[in-house]
Design a protein that fits this description.
7 strands, Rossmann fold, alpha/beta, two-stranded antiparallel ribbon, transferase, P-loop_NTPase, 5-stranded parallel sheet, Uridine kinase
C-alpha cells in the first residue's frame, strides 16, 4: 500500500512538473509575439508599438480584427455602473476623429481621380452588437465629417443611414407563420426587409444618386418611410446596423458596396446591460421583463453579430 501511495505521489509530481513549463512557454511566446499590428492612422502611429495587454486597454483603432471570444465579456466593467448607459468614451472619440481624417483623405483621393462632373460617393459601414453604440458613433462621425467639410468650404457631405428603418412593421410580423414568435424575435436578421435595404444601399452607392431611406420611430414602434434623404451633394454615406457583414444572402451583396468596414468591439455582456437599461429607462419596460426579453432574443442576436466581426477592416472602441 505504501508503495502504491508513493507511486501516485510521483505521478502527481510528474504531472505538475509537465504543466508548469507549458504555461511558461505559452506566456513567453505571447510576450514575444504580442507586438501590436500597425495602427490605421498616422496620428496614432506616433504612439509606438504597444504590448498586447496594453493595446487591449488603450488602442483606438486596429488594422486587423483580433479573434476575441465573447465568453468573458460579462465581467467587463462589472463595477462601473455609469458605463451601463451607452455614451461616447474618450478613446472612442479619438478613434472617431482618426477615422474621420482617413475617410476624408480617401474621399479627396477619389475626387482627384474622378472625371469632371462625375461626382463621388463613399460608403462607410459600422456594425456591432445590440447596445454597442453604433448609432452614437455614426452620428458623432457624421458630425465630425460635416464640420471638417464645412471648414473646406463644402456643405453637408455626410449622412447616416440606419438599418433599423428596415424592420418589418408590426402588421407585417402579424402576417408571418408564427406571429407571436416573430414579435418576440424582432431584431433577428429574418425580421428585417433585407432585400429592400440592400437594394436601397446599392442604389445610393452610385455617385450623385438621390435616394430616400426609412428611419425607425421608437415612439410608434415602426419604420417611417422616406425620413432620410440622400442628395446629389452627399459624398459620404455612413451605414450602421447589426447585420451588415452577415454571411447570408442578400446581406453578402453589401460587401462589394462598402469602401471601409468597421466593427465596434464592445463586450457582449456590457452591450446587453445597455440594452436592458434602454428598455427600462427609455421604453418603460419592467426590469424583469426586459431581462427575460434580452435573454430570449437580444443575446442570440448579439452572438450572431459578434461572429461577423472577422469580415470588418477596423475594430473600433465603444
Amino acid at each position: 500500500m505504501e508503495a502504491m501511495r508513493a507511486g501516485r505521489a510521483r505521478a502527481a509530481g510528474a504531472n505538475v512538473g509537465l504543466a508548469t513549463p507549458r504555461r511558461s512557454r505559452g506566456s513567453s511566446a505571447r510576450r514575444e509575439s504580442g507586438r501590436a499590428p500597425p495602427l490605421a492612422s498616422a496620428s496614432l502611429r506616433s504612439a509606438g508599438p504597444l504590448s498586447r495587454e496594453r493595446k487591449d486597454r488603450l488602442s483606438f483603432l486596429s488594422s486587423a480584427p483580433r479573434r476575441d471570444l465573447p465568453g468573458g465579456c460579462s465581467r467587463f466593467h462589472s463595477k462601473r455602473k455609469d458605463l451601463v448607459r451607452c455614451f461616447h468614451s474618450r478613446k472612442a472619440d479619438k478613434a472617431c476623429a482618426s477615422l474621420a481624417d482617413e475617410v476624408l483623405e480617401e474621399v479627396r483621393y477619389m475626387r482627384e481621380k474622378a472625371k469632371e462632373n462625375e461626382g463621388v460617393r463613399y460608403v462607410l459601414a459600422i456594425a456591432g452588437c445590440p447596445g454597442s453604440g453604433k448609432s452614437t458613433l455614426a452620428k458623432r462621425l457624421c458630425t465630425k465629417l460635416n464640420a471638417r467639410a464645412s471648414e473646406e468650404g463644402r456643405g453637408g457631405t455626410a449622412v447616416v443611414i440606419p438599418m433599423d428603418g428596415y424592420h418589418y412593421t408590426r402588421a407585417e410580423l402579424d402576417r408571418m407563420q408564427d406571429p407571436k414568435l416573430a414579435h418576440r424575435r424582432r431584431g433577428a436578421h429574418w425580421t428585417f426587409d433585407a432585400e429592400g435595404f440592400v437594394r436601397r444601399v446599392e442604389e445610393a452607392s452610385r455617385p450623385r444618386a438621390e435616394v430616400d431611406f426609412a428611419s425607425f420611430d421608437h415612439g410608434i414602434g415602426d419604420p417611417v418611410p422616406g425620413a432620410i434623404q440622400v442628395g446629389k451633394h452627399h459624398e459620404i454615406l455612413v451605414v450602421e446596423g447589426l447585420y451588415l457583414y452577415l454571411d447570408k444572402e442578400p446581406w453578402t451583396d453589401l460587401m462589394e458596396v462598402f469602401h471601409k468596414k468597421c466593427f465596434i468591439k464592445c463586450p457582449i455582456g456590457l452591450a446587453l446591460q445597455r440594452v436592458v437599461h434602454r428598455k427600462v429607462h427609455v421604453l418603460g419596460e419592467t426590469e424583469n421583463g426586459a431581462r427575460r426579453q434580452v435573454d430570449f432574443n437580444d443575446k442570440k442576436n448579439a452572438i450572431a453579430v459578434w461572429r461577423t466581426r472577422k469580415r470588418a477592416d477596423l475594430l473600433l472602441p465603444t
